[in-house]
Specification:
The protein is an alpha+beta fold. It is 35% helix and 22% strand.
């Protein structure tokens, strides 16, 4: 079982680099880093009259400090006299905060089924396969938060575990009331009899493909893949069935 982690390397593929003035030539060391695959996300003034740059490489943020001669750059964290890391705030501002916002918006745009109060103060997304027993277990353990109105769970169905997973997911999405059908299915521990469609509605089929693509882009490779925002508004990921402590972290107060 994997522990909570910040989003993985693949997130970088979905982010748009900020627009810097085309006529503003960057210092040679920064251009050299860009040629190596680093993305410039922001600039800032650093202590000691240094020019700082927030950069991203394969989904990870870092800071780079330009020397006064503009011919050299130092990559890494800046520490003050108290041992405080001064780079973290810049990386959070220019790399991770925009990343979280972008990914959260992508989740919102995809096709999901809601469970719980629409006005709940906390939203949790989960990618689930109809044949996934751990998804059913997560559904069961999430119920106290859903019933209290503290959390809205948004389920993005995917078809990945069995050849007919997509058909079963489509049957739920194509039903008259997908939210009720999903709840009945999960509450039956996956035993609810459903007639799988002979032909999947093209719109539903495309939505299922898009969900699976998004899951892959977010670094998910197992179900349930769970996504939520922490107290700092940073997108967090957990794969697999969380233990009790992790579940409380994901769902918040009951």
């Amino acid at each position: 079982m994997k522990k909570i982690s910040a989003l993985s390397v693949s997130l970088a593929l979905l982010l748009n680099a900020p627009a810097f003035a085309a006529d503003a030539k960057l210092p040679a060391p920064i251009e050299a880093l860009e040629k190596q695959g680093f993305e410039l996300k922001g600039e800032f003034k650093a202590p000691g009259d240094l020019q700082g740059y927030a950069m991203q490489y394969q989904g990870q943020g870092t800071t780079v400090y330009l020397t006064p001669d503009k011919q050299h750059a130092i990559m890494g964290n800046m520490i003050d006299t108290e041992g405080k890391n001064l780079s973290d705030a810049e990386v959070e501002k220019f790399v991770y905060a925009p990343m979280a916002k972008e990914m959260w918006q992508n989740l919102e745009k995809h096709r999901w089924i809601a469970a719980g109060d629409a006005k709940a103060p906390r939203i949790v997304y989960v990618f689930a396969d109809p044949y996934c027993p751990y998804c059913t277990q997560f559904w069961e353990q999430a119920q106290p938060w859903l019933k209290s109105g503290k959390v809205q769970l948004r389920v993005l169905l995917v078809g990945m575990l069995r050849p007919d997973s997509g058909q079963k997911a489509a049957a739920i999405l194509m039903s008259k009331d997908p939210a009720k059908t999903l709840a009945d299915y999960e509450n039956s521990k996956g035993k609810l009899a459903m007639q799988k469609p002979e032909k999947i509605d093209p719109v539903i089929g495309e939505a299922l493909k898009d969900n699976l693509t998004l899951m892959d882009d977010l670094g998910g490779n197992a179900t349930p893949s769970i996504y939520y925002l922490n107290a700092e508004g940073r997108l967090q990921q957990h794969q697999g069935m969380p233990d009790a402590e992790t579940l409380n972290t994901i769902m918040g107060d009951k």
